What we know:
The complex is a heterodimer of chains A (115) and B (115). With 115 residues, chain A is an all-beta fold. Chain A has no helices and 11 strands. In chain A, β5 and β6 form a beta hairpin. The model of chain A has no long low-confidence stretch (mean pLDDT 92). Chain B is built from no helices and 12 strands. Chain B is mainly beta. In chain B, strands 2, 5, 6, 10, 11 and 12 form a 6-stranded mixed beta sheet that branches. A 4-stranded antiparallel beta sheet of chain B has the order 3-9-8-7, with no helix packed on it. The chains are: A mainly beta (115), B mainly beta (115). At the A-B interface, β4, β5 and β10 of A face β6 and β11 of B.
Amino acid sequence: DTGxxxxxxxxxxxxxxxxxFRCDPISEHNRLYWYRQTLGQGPEFLTYFQNEAQLEKSRxxxxxxxxxxxxxxxxxxxxxxxxxGDSAMxxxxxxxxxxxxxxxxxxxGTRLTVT
Amino acid sequence: AQTVxxxxxxxxxxxxxxxTLSCTYDTSESDYYLFWYKQPPSRQMILVIxxxxxxxxxxxxxxxxxxxxxxxxxxxxxxxxSQLGDAAMYFCxxxxxxxxxxxxxxxxxxxxxxx
Lengths: 115, 115
């Protein structure tokens, strides 16, 4: 169990640029989640995958945001035409089919700064 | 929509003492789960304790226990024998029991342990 891995840890980009983040869940976990956490706030749900299917999507996920999980393993979150308001920590989490209480694992996050 | 409120942005406690963090929530659902998550500085979020709404008995995990008051929609976390490693942001979170995978978080309480 190597944990949930997110890459990169930090990303600084200029407004208007596109960015892509990657999340590698724990290998046997079929469920994967993306959250966004701004300074001083709790994480906000963005989207959820079960295997390769995107089953839930928040209204926060505007048309500039897209998430994929093409083979049901790793996932990518892309933000197009970044805005300063996109500056946040983007957290990925995963869990397996067992709904056990300690089964949700979070990664360390990708911190995005839009200048 | 469900909301989670943490009214204490910051708390501090002497090492070895007991501290209680407050959380209230609003929902019209009868089946749901409540969680406390810990987020140490620059480290990943981990689950501290979980409570199923249908269970009357308060959950406990070693030094961590909750006071779940369903009618009052209150879910406080008690940390006994506080240790330096308990210093972190603590988030209260809610999840619907009806197949919804989304966690709704509060804004967090920063806990400082005084040696």
